[in-house]
């Protein structure tokens, strides 16, 4: 019967060019989905948002492994802990516009994960009994990239601004260190390792 024929007839062979087009359509769809899945969860903050950087990050870090924090012009307090296996981006509006000011409190960032910081001033932080006055990168193989960042008046025992001795790649581009201090060794700006690089960086009045 005609019904039986519909069940058992041989499938129609598609032309080769049609098969190729379908293959690439599926491939592009998969790549597109992967890119979308990799996009970080984004938070935008202003000084009047009612949340510190710490509070905003804590509210989402349990739900997202990749987080981007966008900071407007102004001054922001707070410290962050980046867990292993996670990624954080902090992007300001420029070193002369956005200041992350810890007012002499603890360091800005402790990171065991991937870190990207751009267009911001990191100021007035202290870690008096340990290392990394502004940023400590601890036993991580993930990269840390700093681009157009000013570290000012940050203090710790070693690595007045940054401690990266046990870290993976630390890549610094257009980074400035001014008035930072190490109290126990000579790393007033950065205590780095073999994977630390600095391009177009400047140092001024760091101690020692």
Protein model, in words:
The protein is of the alpha/beta class. 18% of the residues lie in helices and 40% in strands. The chain is built from 3 helices and 17 strands. Strands 1, 2, 3, 5, 6, 8, 10, 11, 13, 14, 16 and 17 form a 12-stranded parallel sheet that branches. A 5-stranded parallel sheet has the order 4-7-9-12-15. Strand 1, helix 3 (53-60) and strand 2 form a beta-alpha-beta unit. It is globular and about 40 Å long.
- Mean pLDDT, as a whole number? 86
Please state roughly what percent of the residues sit in beta strands, choosing from under 5%, 5-15%, 15-25%, 25-35%, 35-45% or over 45%: 35-45%
Order of helices and strands: HHEHEEEEEEEEEEEEEEEE
Number of helices: 3
Q: Would you report the number of β strands?
A: 17
In this structure, how is the largest beta sheet organized?
Answer: 12 strands, parallel
Gyration radius over CA: 24 Å
Fraction of residues in helices? 10-25%
Q: How does the overall form come out from the CA principal axes?
A: globular
Low-confidence segments, given as residue ranges, are: 1-14, 18-37
End-to-end Cα distance, whole Å, is 94 Å
Broad structural category: alpha/beta
